[in-house]
Amino acid sequence: MFLLHKLKLRQVNEPCILTGLTIRQAKHYSFTLDGTRISLKVPKHNTELLAEPVSPKTHYDIEGVHLKEMINTRDGWGALGSVFRSCDFYGPIFGGRLASMSTSVAIVTPRKIEDKVSFFHPRSFEYGVGQLLAFEHGDEHLIDRQAWLAPIEWQPLTQFESVAARFNVEPNSLRHTECRCLALPITNHHLLELKFVINWNVDYQNDNISKEEERNWLDRRNIYQLIDDVIDSLEVTLSDEARAQQAKALEGLNDTSLTTSYPPIDFSKMDGNEQSYQQLGQGVK
Known about the structure:
Layout: H1 3-6, E1 16-17, E2 19-20, E3 26-33, E4 36-43, E5 59-60, E6 69-71, E7 74-90, E8 97-110, H2 122-137, E9 148-157, E10 164-171, E11 177-187, E12 190-200, H3 211-216, E13 218-219, H4 221-233, E14 235-237, H5 240-249
Parallel strand pairs: 1-13, 3-5
Antiparallel strand pairs: 2-7, 3-4, 4-14, 6-7, 7-8, 8-12, 9-10, 10-11, 11-12
């Protein structure tokens, strides 16, 4: 499949539609985390990049387990990676790889969070997502501004038992990477993070147009459709214990919905290692 598209024999100097795998080539995965069942379809691993696929185990025990550092260079959040796949997208025949999209599923948890706080509470969930974004992206800076804007296009989701949201992480300049994410709680202190990272392999040779115009030549609707299809395939069935945690967190709360507007965060005003979730005044009663 895509054999002639993979061959890089010419430069692409005109608009084109990116083609690659679809949800029809995806594999279904199902696994449990302390009794909570996660299932989704993920496209098969098909990339020129040096990236090894990761397949989930049948079951994970995470209660009381110290997850390894999400980022090796600093502590603050732990993570358990369960799924990773990457697939390439191509332009016209002999145009070669023009983009890659990776799909990852991870369970993440902050090192510092008080026992009485629960991510099942909508305000704690929103705050936790902000802290996670600050930890993942807040340390990168351009000369006069932060390198990433997040969350972008915040969208609460209602098809799950718990609160959930999808959103984007976009470069604050013309860079060849962007992220699309989904997050939802699976325990009081653990979030499921479904992340799609798109890398653009743009190397046009046309002196008459700008780099931004070159990148805009790529019609990426097929990539975004695949992301939507993977998200639509995601099913999360909470364990009895997780449901009990959620019921306690929402006790007495009349409005359990998420905010519909979550503007990009000024990371310079956040410190994920020091701020307390109790600043919200919300959590488990």
